[in-house]
Amino acid sequence: MAISLEVPVKDQSWLDEHSGGFREELMEYPGVLLEKIIKMFLERSKTWMGVWNVNFPIEKTDEFKFCPNFSNNYFPNRMDIQNNHFGYIDNCDPDSQPEDSDVKVLLDNIVAITPIKWDLTDWGELEKLRNEEK
Fold this sequence. Notes:
Blueprint (H helix, E strand, L loop, with lengths): L1 E4 L7 H5 L9 H18 L6 E6 L7 E3 L7 H5 L23 H6 L3 E6 L6 H11 L1
Parallel strand pairs: 1-2, 3-4
Antiparallel strand pairs: 2-4
């Protein structure tokens, strides 16, 4: 399970102060809902092999939604990662996100949960190699 908690744009002082130790304020949110989600995942993992990507929005919520992943430029729009600077630039347009995507769900202040399977096979390359064998 991959778990993320979006942090406030304007006040990231807690990042500088974070020691890696336990943070009591996280017990309520996302803690209570996270415990419920982990229990659901553990039950599901008895019959399914994969991982869940769980993204918690900044504002406290008790809502969650299962949704597909939307790979786009969301994070580069939110963070200046190209220049090795991890501060927010936050010019993400919420209206440009697909309605059912994990990005839109998160922007709507709902916990976004995406079930993910890994298939390490590069199917396109495999097909090319098989065609070359013939």
